[in-house]
Amino acid sequence: MSKARTESDLSAQLDADFTSRLRELSDLKRTIRDADPNAQQVLLKALVTISYAHWEGHVKFAASKYFEYVALRRLTYISLQQQFYVNSFLVRLGAFVANRPSLKTRCDLISEALNPGNACFSQVHPELVNTGSNLKFEILQNICLVCGIDCAIFQPYETFIDLVLLRRRNSIAHGDESVVDVHEVDELIDGVVELMRLFRNQVENKVYTQAYLASSRGR
Predict the structure, then answer these.
(1) Which residues pair with 76 in a beta bridge?
(2) Relative to the CA of 141, which of 34, 58, 69, 202 has its CA 20 to 30 Å away?
């Protein structure tokens, strides 16, 4: 896939990803309705795992494309929201502490953190948008923080994310014989679609309003 060089590029790529996932969920829903009872139970379990996969996949895709778009602007850290510069240290800090660095190395890191100079943002470390196949609400909060997105909009969905999607997906993947009721299909798909739409919209809004810029804090 080509890089998201413009606002319209980003929007088109997010739309294509979202639409393909929505289409697959709609097709599976239709197949479940038409299936015989035995096949239906298998398809219902498949719906849970696929619904979770699309939720996780769209969040990772949208977050990655957002950072790709900003990186292509070749902007200095000082011109961007502070979180971009904070992100550049997060992964390094984990390894830093584990290696028991010398005093001079620690001083050098602090000096670098205090003075971004003319350094430009070029990429986000993949680990910071890695869902780890475990996109529970806590991890969503972390990804939102890294992206500079207010996670409060997702708070009403915490139970749905952790219990309906993730825990049930894990139970099915581990061989649990839990039965998914056919009457839950609409609620499950509607919830996943709304979550994907919310995250996608947050990313698009940041781009179209240029909320990734440091100057946006004063708007």
Answers:
(1) 120
(2) 69
